[in-house]
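REVIEWER CHECKLIST
Item 1: Sequence provided? yes
Item 2: Single chain? yes
Item 3: Sequence as submitted:
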Amino acid sequence: MKILNLFGRYDAQLIEAAAWGNAKAVKKALKHANPNAKKVGDLGFFAGQNAPRNEDTPIMAAARNGHAECVRILAPVSDLQTQHNTNWESALFVAAERGYLACVQALLECPQAHYLCKMMTLDRGDTALGIAAARGHAECVKALLPLSIPGKLNSECRTPLCLAVSECLNPSAAMECAALLAPDTKFPSLTDIRPTEHGKKPQIDPLAEAVAAENAEMAALLAPLYAQRGQRDCVNPSLGLAVALMKTRQTGPWALSGEAAHKAWALADMLAFHAEEAFAKECLADAGPACLPRWCAHQEKIALSLIVEEGKSSQKGDLFANAQGAFDPPARGARSPRL
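Item 4: Structure as written out by the authors:
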């Protein structure tokens, strides 16, 4: 074991007590230890599942293992804005990553909460909100949203919503996180999702991510929001992707037919309702009416209603003309009918 000086030993004892959630030992060690000290090196008494990682401070060690009481004790005496490990993971980040809601709430009550919510990791620039969404911790996402920026892009040009769509392994948790994030997230425009001449990375579209994974439930959640925000043109690429995916399955030994084929095309059929009508018609011409049955039936219904309305309008016009003629004043010199 590395020989420590007196104060270094107290620092190590504080980190160990925080990692194990021993609130009484944390209070005792705080009398002599530095709450901003970091774990450095491989110390023998840190063996086990609760061992803090290299560069963890006491409050980070407590947050990593879900010890909210220790977090509340350490938060007032810790300089949270300077506390991070080598990957710039803060105490809030590690608590959100593991889904420890009580620790997240304790840290959000601190004066430095706004700063902690903005901190981004070095590897790909994730925030606490982003990692919570990626792991499917919906309660943590809900707690973090008021102090976070939902549309913040990481180095891969993904928003927390994108991370929930593409990385969360639990489908129900992903849907819950997406439902929380989508109303406050600005969806990318066509310009945003296309690469530029200056080498700017294109923004990842969450709807396209859902379609690529053939996640019909997620796409059904997001697509109507694009239409409501006047971004039907942004649904076009996702509809084109869905059509291309299904067309690749129409040939070969594993080609679908009958009812199975209709179910497979349901994703593209749904997206057609929210894309631009002209583009949907292009996809219809490319794929065939059997592939978009609901959208075709809807278009036929609209056309029929227009024909009926035009017919009613023309009848009303004839009746109005006849009624108008009955009340026209008599021509000059004509004799009025005797009553």
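Item 5: Key structural point noted by reviewer: The chain is about 55% helix and 0% strand.
Item 6: Recommendation: ____
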